[in-house]
Protein: Fumarate lyase N-terminal domain-containing protein
Organism: marine sediment metagenome
Amino acid sequence: IANDISWLGSGPRAGLGELALPEVQPGSSIMPGKVNPVVPEALIQVCAQVVGNDATVTLAGHRSFFELNTMMPVAGYNLLQSIELLAAAARNFAERCVDGLRATERGPELVEKGLAIATGLAPLIGYDAAAEVAKEAASSGRTIREVAQERTKLSDEDLQRALDPTSMTEPGLQRRED
């Protein structure tokens, strides 16, 4: 998640730019406007440490013969350290990154220009017709909405409902209202 947030917050112009990360330290001296994703990067580093600790705990389990558990001290130390690191890092990530995240206008813009949104047309006009709309939109540089308005007999209301990305996250199929 931290890695995804870093990428989604990359920019301001040449990155994905779908999220605006909170500014928690001065930005780049050579790229004005850039917000360094230091909090997500810190969480990623903590996760790397925990993976290393897990390897130690695993090895300790392999080396504890019979019921002597001679490696219990190192296993316990690394387990407790991992718990403390993850608790602190999760709190820091929530307070200094997640709480201040905000979506930019880039996400909805990409959805509107994307071809995947044609999926919402299939229950109304059929898979093949929806695929043709998507192909034409791709080849012409127009949006799915523009091509569908021209090539289908869907009302503006049906088209709006079919191409609403939020409705695609809910169970059920869109139906044409006649």
